[in-house]
Amino acid sequence: MILDFSFCGIGIIIFWCIGTNALSSSKRSDVKNDIIKNLDESIPHGSIPLRQNILSFQNDRVSLRLSWSSIFSDLELRSLLIQALISLQKKQNTDIYSYYQLAGKLLVFKISCDSELIDEGIHGRPYIPWNNVVKTPGTYDTGYCSHNSVLFLTWHRPYLAIVESSLIAEAQYIAKGYKNKSDEYVEAAKNLRLPYWDWAADPRLPEIATTPNIEIYAWNGTQIVDNPLFQYRFNGPLDPILFPPNEQDGWFSQYSHTVRGANTKSPEEVNHFDVVNTHLQRNNIMSNTWRVLVKSSNFNSFSSTATPGLSLEEIHNNVHSSIGGRYGHMSYLSFSAFDPIFWLHHANIDRLFALWQVLNPDSYLEPQEDVFGNFVILPHSIVDASTNLKPFRNSETGKWWTSTSVRDIKTFSYTYPELQGNQTGKSLKSSVTAAINRLYNPNSTTLQRWKNLKQDGTKNRRQEAKEWSLAMSVFKFDLGGAPFKVLFFMDSVPALSTDWEISDSTIGSVIIFPPPYSSAAEPLPQLITYAEIDLDDGLQRHGRDTMNVTDVIEFLQNQLEWRIQKMDGSPVPNDQVPSLNITLQDEVILKPLDVTEFPIYGEKTLHPDALKSQRK
């Protein structure tokens, strides 16, 4: 039911070539999995399997246990996930659903049209057709993925489902090899779903993704194996025709595996996980995640940097940049999907999207201009909930998946811990609200500030507070297509630009990711992106009274600064980014009465002239 990999309008069954044992990539002909049915048939006893927190696979106890989990120790549960991912990664590049193909380059056999193999790609490089979905004339040379577009969240939902169904197919085969517990392991494999990494609740890389080796329980006992969550090792050098070394991201051709926390282009200076964690924490990811879930009741504003305000895509971008560093794969959209943590990251994006849907059941994608487009969407097209999410097709109807048809996550046979059970309507909304407050706002300066507000003694009456932020907009191609950052400081700015991101004065940053495109594309489009930077935590640390407008503005005029920085850490003069616009704003809020409520946000008041001196 889930995904159709059909060609020229004729459906086909995918014949999987999976290793003869759990850790090999040799061809086996006894397993035939129709990926179209794979997720549906994996549902045990009518239940909806959970996508679990990745931390559940590394702790002494599984924090949210599945119905069958009492059968297994954590080592056994972890082993299915690790072996399935190893099997995907070890497949040959020419294998139809190898990890290499799912993340970037694909080779698909066109059964019903002709008998040739063609190079194809989905998320980033190479920028060529996938699943026989050819490039629309007049579009840019880029991937199918939608960024800086209201399709951002909905497009990635079926994309994750492809990887998830591939992982399940591997796990189901591996499970049959456990001779003494085959039935139990097969049942476990049916429940296996992509884990998510909740970087908002704990903005540090999960330990399970930072160790080169990991212990598993394989068919023949306990083994120490290369950890497939640590890195993906390419099966041979990258094709220089498809991955040109002279392009802006050309240095990636020197890497034999994915890297994180790369401060230089040297393969030896990578995986600085302490720096990654510092960047994650400096970006206020926890408080920003709470704010985007609380403040954004309109889908278009919530989903994408194409609309003014704080968006989930803005937070998503900062996580990408924090993990990759200056030169790592996650910092460049053309290569990011090769890093295994990409899938854990995007599973969490999808989870937050699903939580937001419970809070805002009546708001969904509204028509909006897609200025840049993608491989199949023309620039300046108006996209809406019925826009085809190519190259993903529904096998039952033969139609393309759309934002409307992917709206319910149960369509793809998975759910998340906060959404399990029989709660519906107001009860479910209250439960999800409490979970969001517990996870992302337990000891925040926002709550502390509310506690310090003078009460009037009236019960059941919401109290007023005021929140301050910066509204930012900029053209993505102001630096010729190269990504860049805008960093914000209270107090002094470090003299060395390479120290900006890790400075205690840093209160936030915004990463600008121009969409992947061919360098031959001229002229560069005027693609505007939006962001919102919270000031409340910084104001609280400096003891400012946020209800006193005059005091706050005077303080910010003296203490607030921002800088522009290239990905290599070098500074950029403000006049080289002429489109950058930053405006101070405040909004009155009514604080909640208990943990099952959110604050109510009023209209924003702009202070357009307050930061004149900083703009010079």
Through-space gap between termini: 57 Å
- Strands side by side in the biggest sheet: 12-9-15-16
What is the helix fraction of residues, given as a range?
25-40%
Task: Please identify the structural class as seen in this structure.
Answer: alpha+beta
Approximately what portion of the residues adopt beta-strand conformation?
15-25%
* CATH-assigned homologous superfamily of the largest domain: Di-copper center containing domain from catechol oxidase
Q: Tell me what the CATH architecture of the largest domain is.
A: Orthogonal Bundle
Our Rg estimate from Cα atoms comes to 24 Å
- The top-level CATH class of the largest domain is Mainly Alpha
SSE string: HHHEEHHEEHHHHHEEEEHHEEEEHHEEEE
Shape: globular
- Mean pLDDT figure: 81
Layout of secondary structure:
Blueprint: H1 35-41, H2 74-90, H3 99-103, E1 105-109, E2 117-121, H4 152-175, H5 182-191, E3 213-218, E4 221-226, H6 273-282, H7 285-295, H8 299-303, H9 312-324, H10 341-359, E5 368-370, E6 381-383, E7 388-393, E8 400-402, H11 425-440, H12 445-452, E9 464-475, E10 484-490, E11 506-512, E12 528-534, H13 536-541, H14 549-559, E13 560-566, E14 571-572, E15 581-590, E16 600-607
Antiparallel strand pairs: 1-2, 3-4, 5-6, 7-8, 9-12, 9-15, 10-11, 10-13, 13-14, 15-16
